[in-house]
Fold this sequence. Notes:
300 residues, binds zinc ion, Rossmann fold, alpha/beta, 28% helix, 2 domains, globular, Quinone Oxidoreductase, Chain A, domain 1
Amino acid sequence: MASGICGTDLHIYHGEYLGDYPVIPGHEFSGVVTSVGSLVKRFKIGDRVAVEPNIACDNCDHCLNNRQNFCLNWQAVGVTLPGGMAQFVTAPEKVVFDIGDLAFEQGAFVEPLSCVIHGVERARIKLGDRIAILGAGPIGNLILQVSRLQGAAHITVLENNPGRADLARNIGSDIVVNDIEDLILDGYDVVIDATGVIPVMNRTIDFARKGGTVLLFGVPPSGANIEMEAFKLFHKGLTLLSSFTSVRNSFQAIHLLQSGQIQVEPLISHRLPIQALPDAIRMIERHDPTVKKVVILPNG
Ligand SMILES: [Zn+2]
Ligand SMILES: [Zn+2]
């Protein structure tokens, strides 16, 4: 019923990510169960559900150590398997979650929000922390809201797209700056990159305070190197983190959406039919200031 376009889809589209052609994209989606296999226990026809796209084997060394995101036999709906940019899609029961009364468009945020929860939990934001978030796309704005819930006292957002900057302002940032030089050197307990843009990622360690944390969350192009002064990283005693997908965060995401503590409606700029998908990808790549989250409604 609703399937979000994500930065990862653009990487997949350009052959820069793990999947191989041909693939039907769409890994952030929700819908109605229209048929179930004979062994399915938790669902019946008519249930409203969201899908955690990553399918772990539950039987490799990583899975058996609760690192299902690194499953050696990893598959993902919309990446290696046919995804949600279609009227119908199949998924194994174990990656399907009941969303109750949640709107389908909100259900399409269960996956990205799960990833954000995983990342923010890795960054160990503490009560009263001062945070800088670099990039206020849909992910940056989810990081902003989850960081606030984790107890961040002051959140600065870097964003030069005026539409996205407005969104960050409305959704609860304390300050939005549009020039990276306006961030405070050594100024933040936690610096989170949500751009995946290499020159921006390179600067993150400048803005973390001594002993602070840097989380590289945005997906960079594969094959590109970051460049950081090794001595600065050492001398500042920084914790440098990355975050790959999520690990059993779907219930958390659904609960936060159902409780209204995470707002996703303001993040949606376009609701389009499935036929508009190629145009929607081109529109996102033009960096039009009016584009935020684009949700495809395959049965709409
Ligand atoms: Zn995604
Ligand atoms: Zn596994």
